[in-house]
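Morning. Coffee machine broken again, so started the prediction first thing and wrote up yesterday's gels while waiting. Chain of 226 residues, entered below exactly as on the submission form.
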Amino acid sequence: MRGRFITLEGIEGAGKSTQRDVVRACLLDAGVELTLTREPGGSEIAERMRALLLDRANRGMDSNAELLLMFAARAEHLHKTILPALETGRWVLCDRFTDATYAYQGGGRGLDRARIAQLETFVQGLLRPDLTLLFDLPAATGLARARGRSAPDRFESEALLFFDQVRAEYLRIAEREPGRVRRINAQGDVASVAADVRLVISEYLHATGQACRAASAPCSAATMRP
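Came back before lunch.
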């Protein structure tokens, strides 16, 4: 049986990395065999492409080149990590996927959505995430958080308007696909966001015939590191 494919999305500073561990703990509580990965990256060659994409020295990169690099990295990632895991029945939890391309290269860079869709079909075929958690908060709040934790990378160095456009595209995706994309309010404290995440994952596990083993709460509150 094919495994399930879950993705996490949101602008910088939305808390995806912290909540990824909550999702992971919940899935492991349910006895799910899990592969944890990320984009851009997720395989040896794709990680090298990630370095190119995030390097601030490459701020002059053409938007079309950026788009093609994203999908080149995704092709490597799919064939080296994601598809092999899914085909053996493992679930895959991925920090960002093609929704991020629509949001960043489509919304942020203003590239044609139809062009992105063509590349999506070319690289992925029919593969799409089964469930996406969108961690949403105002762009100004997320950017302030991101820039307060470390030196900004090439994307984090963009202006606020860029992230406003990215967020707007993410929200349009969520509106178009409410069955797949679950919006999580990421403005609250870590504990309250985590409670919302556990509820969404518990509902999804129930719908797919899985069950968390933790009896006192909808999935364990413990976090785990990769």
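The mean pLDDT is 92. Going to sketch it on the whiteboard this afternoon.
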